[in-house]
Amino acid sequence: MAILQCSGLSKLYGSKKALFNVNLNLEHGRIIGLLGPNGSGKSTFLKICNGLLTPSEGTVLINGMMPGIRTKEIVSYLPEQTYLNDWMKVSDILGFFKDFYADFNIGKAGDMLHSLNINPNDRLKTLSKGTKEKVQLILVMAREAKLYLLDEPIGGVDPAARDYILNTIIKNYNQEATVVISTHLIADIERVLDDVVFLRNGEVVLTSTVDDIRENKGVSVDALFREVFKC
Amino acid sequence: MNWNFQSDRPIYVQLKEQIKLMIISGTYPAGAKLPTVRDLASEASVNPNTLQKALIELEREGLVYTQRTIGRFVTEDENMITDAKKELAYEQIEHILKKLLEMGYTREEILALVESKVREMK
Amino acid sequence: MLGKLMKYEFKATGRVFLPMFGALLIVAAFSRLFVSLSFKVPSAIGIIVSVIMIIGIFVMTFLLTIQRFNKNLLGSEGYLMFTLPVSTDSLIFSKLLTAAVWNIASVIIVFTAISIMAMTGFSFREMAEAIQRLLRSTDITDLNFALYVIEVTVSVLVSLLAGILTLYACMALSLLVNKHRGLFAFGAFVVINILLQTAGSILLVAGGVMNFENIFLKMQLEQQIHMVAILMIVLNFVIAGIFYVVTKLMLKYKLNLD
Description:
The complex is a heterotrimer.
Chain A: E1 4-13, E2 16-26, E3 31-35, H1 42-49, E4 57-62, H2 69-72, E5 75-78, H3 90-100, H4 106-115, H5 129-141, E6 147-151, H6 159-172, E7 178-183, H7 186-189, E8 195-200, E9 203-209, H8 210-217, H9 221-228
Parallel strand pairs in A: 3-7, 3-8, 5-6, 6-7
Antiparallel strand pairs in A: 1-2, 1-4, 8-9
Helix pairs in contact in A: 5-6
Chain B: H1 11-24, H2 37-44, H3 48-61, E1 64-67, E2 71-74, H4 78-103, H5 107-121
Antiparallel strand pairs in B: 1-2
Chain C: H1 2-36, H2 40-72, H3 78-81, H4 88-117, H5 124-137, H6 142-173, H7 181-209, H8 212-218, H9 221-253
């Protein structure tokens, strides 16, 4: 059974189509790039999968279940926004995750903080924006989840941190899990992807494996992306 | 090891070539244990699935074998590695030869050129 | 999970309330000390500061009740809260119960501070005895006293919950608009209050039509008190229920975080 199935999924805001008739089956053990320009519906799709938005039409099933408490237990979500509050210390938010997520590996999180030289006793309020994003990624990747939904994980960070983030993703996901990475920076992540889904104006315009694109079209995903989304 | 990938060919093919080169050049000698898929993948910053695919291809060619639960090893058959090395060398030579012939050199001239260049290197 | 949510809710709010409560009690204690030592200027200052702090505590209690819901659920922190494996009910209840506890605690602390400052001294026991004396003087038996206390307490609690839920519902209703949510929530609050007033008036008129007034006036005082208390509890319970459902439905189906 696919870890994520959606059929006829649409989200309309008045007459504006944020998502339209999306049909997808994402398999276990894959790293999938959700690619599209800004405003193509990537975040909307991920929000619906997390139960943060209600679809206008169609359904999403995660491990066969509608988004709800049971799916939130197995989905690890990195939103685009920073959601850290201003009163906790880094160690407090680790404790918070431990309290609520049975699959949170606090030892792993501690190791990652250490390797990034982030002090667990720092207050979240005092962290720079980049450090906050790293802390959030650590929280998300230290869970042993079945499905990781990462919204623009490499969007706002410098190239060195980008490499670290990609390596963190590669190292920490187990091979049964599926990772969905939404981004418009394709060249940087192409080598970690198995499959790609292209979104344009809320509609899926292409789903393929990366190998197929390179083998059959003889171009990189990045080049294909530029061609498909040429202005 | 520097991992470089061209953008127009599948990554697993390029990974296969580069790992093969490491075996031939002795980075991983005959009988040596290869790093885990996860470690290699993280070193090359590629998807573990892609790396797995490259290793399976190498297994099919016989250069690498899996011992259940212990890990992956380079073949102990030195001849096989020598063959692979030779094969790769031929590939490169053919590549150059083709170019030189296109340039209009004769076989004798090419041999002389190669000989003098090799001497020079010493 | 409700317990865990409340643990963090108390941690997040306690670090504001506890120092505030502590400060008020200390200032109140010093004011009393200055008064009893007849230091005129310091005692005047102490009393003024205490009064300002008391007002401050009530304002802060009100603002935090709003802010914990608005910021933690409807702001960017909502991304964390709504992806926890907990029900929407638990989220609302954790906020509601914690806010109710702090509202009650604020009142108790302010009473304590006032009783510290008051020269004659003030005790809950004396107040209870005074009420009891008052009730005795009106033919109300000792036996029923406990019942009155329970009725009044429940009535106050339910109306507190109804009040907090009204605020939550107004904020949750602001999910219907994309811009100026604060203004919308305030507008919703005004409109809801007008509606509640109107509904109240209609009920009164309806009561008048049904000659309820005469029936009421013929009752004994004892029954009248019971009547009013139970009526208040039922009405506030209905209001609380309606706004709880509104809040829950909005959070479940109309959530739209920026």
